[in-house]
Amino acid sequence: MAIAIDAVSTGGQANPGTSLTWSHTCTGSNRILWVGVSYETASTTVTGVTYNGVAMTGLTASAIGTGCGASQLWYLVAPATGANNIVVTASASTAHLTGDAASYTGASQTGVPDSQNAGVAVATSPLVMATTVVASNCWLVGFSDNNTGGATAGTGTTIRQQGSDASTLVDSNGTVGTGSQSLQLVGVGFNWTYAVASFKPVAAATTTSSSTSSSSTSTSTSTSTST
Q1: Which of 51, 158, 183, 212 is the most exposed place for a label (fewest CB within 10 A)?
Q2: DSSP single-letter state for residue 173
Q3: pLDDT per residue as tens digits for the range 3-28
């Protein structure tokens, strides 16, 4: 089963704020939900993200830039179907707390993420968000933010959601190879932060078939009588 985009949503931004709440609808099978979060105050952390009350997992790779901006990716395997709330909670009030989300079907329910990376770029175009992919047929997902906005999609990149605060949630919109692979944004500004990850498809189902053959023997007896 191949990975496919399911739905996207945005929580906009709280400026300032300690939390964001918005609704996202998941459908289909073998689901995974990704949420990108950004905020401006370096002394603040995002203490948790939930979907339908279930805690999401934050990537260990996250970036804090020189301009006190931060970018993080959070994920949840097998999120509940239907419309449910995403809730982002910060440790203290922070400027420009922003959230965007995308859900996918056909994703592996184990071994998430396949790979991950994060970084900072200053006055660079294109912004290259690279990670070392391990499994075959993975998709890439990435989230970035800066202090000027105006980014457009670069090579191998599809913008899924772009917030008013220059936050941008992107993916590869298809499979990528193994090894170093990247998403790109063009026309970037200053003090960009980003997080990127790969996730693999669910394994194809294995079917076993068996057949049984039988043979039967029929006996015909003929009687001849002569007089």
Answers
A1: 212
A2: S
A3: 999 999 999 888 889 999 999 999 99
